[in-house]
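Lab notebook, bench 4. Still working through the backlog of constructs that have no structural model yet. Next entry is a single chain of 415 residues. Request: give me the structure tokens for it.
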Amino acid sequence: MVVNTSSRVGTSPKIKLRGTSTILGNQSPLWVVDGIVQEDPLELEVSSSMTQDLKDIIGSQVSWLNPMDIETITVLKDASATAIYGSKASNGVIVITTKKGKASQLTINYSGNMTINTRPNYGMFNYMNSKERIQFSQDVFNAGMRYSSEPFADPYTYEGAMQMYIAGDMTRDEFAKRKAFLETVNTDWMGLLLQDTYSHAHSLSISGGTENIRYYASVGYTDEHGNTKGEENKRYTAMTRLNLNYNKFSMNFGLNASIMKKDYTPEQVGVADYAYNTARSLKAYNEDGTPWFYQRDYHGAYDRSFNILNEMKNSYNKINTDQISLNITLGYQVLKDLKADFTFSYGISHTDNNEYYGEDTWHILKLKNLYMETGEVNIPTSLAPFGGQLTLDNTKNENYSARTTLTYNRFLDEE
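Model written out:
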């Protein structure tokens, strides 16, 4: 079962092969590429949605692999998986074999693809327009239902205008004109915050060799743009394979490298949720084209001015990952039916996760405690009286393994 865990571009899907074997532990299958067990780039116990989201964004054990370099994929989900790979295989095993050179003359291959998808629009959903939203608010008020908290007195929302009318700060005619205006706003939040997706991928490989020496090398580039404006995922990959055979000796050598660069708006901003769930009667800009702010999460005397476009402009989440790994297998045919192999692998990966909120964002304004009337900061209670917030998360993962195997293979019906 494959489940997409996030709408953000470049995130890894969740894969289950054998159902749920644990509640709090790791439920992901074991990945094996060319006989080498792939370690998780970020060792986290997924006990909360936050850590799960971080793992999905950074990538899976094989996010470095260029899909065009894959020769075969085999899924093991019975007892044989545990017998071969031990307890790590309790969630199943996905075995990947990459392409290798063939005994032939030099061959050069190029493959490329391009994908374009249109963004969501209001025609795809049964959402209320501004007039319907204002009518709904009026019906709720007329039915005698009350809000969980007192609306902020603001002429740019129906609830705020009603609050001003009840308090005597707005005449009946002014309220009627304001209501008529709000019914015609019809902000296209999906058009402002979302975009058509465009992605393209390219792969170039060379291969060839003789009966004793075969080689394969490839480079790849992928550029993906997400539905949310500003989201992008770039991946660069490189791979080399060398296979040597001489008499009873054999050697297989592999070297892989990848670089991934991901740009997002911080998850807490919630751009996609805002596009889908915000009332169209709220406007995005003032008449002069400047961003329009409203009080979100109203907190008495403190300013909580919010504009989603301002949040996107003044915040970011950048994730950069680089990875390199090598593996070598030495083999010797001891007897006709008996072969000895020694395998060694080494890998290192490095991830920088930078999240930034500028001084002008709502996120910082909540920490600042800025008085609305005076524009002054309540210094004794403020958690961020000046500047913004930058969170740096640096992760380095280094792993190596060595394995010796003896393989005896003989058909019982041989004479």
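Notes after review: Residues 46-51 have pLDDT under 50 and may be disordered. The longest strand covers residues 338-357. Flag for follow-up if needed.
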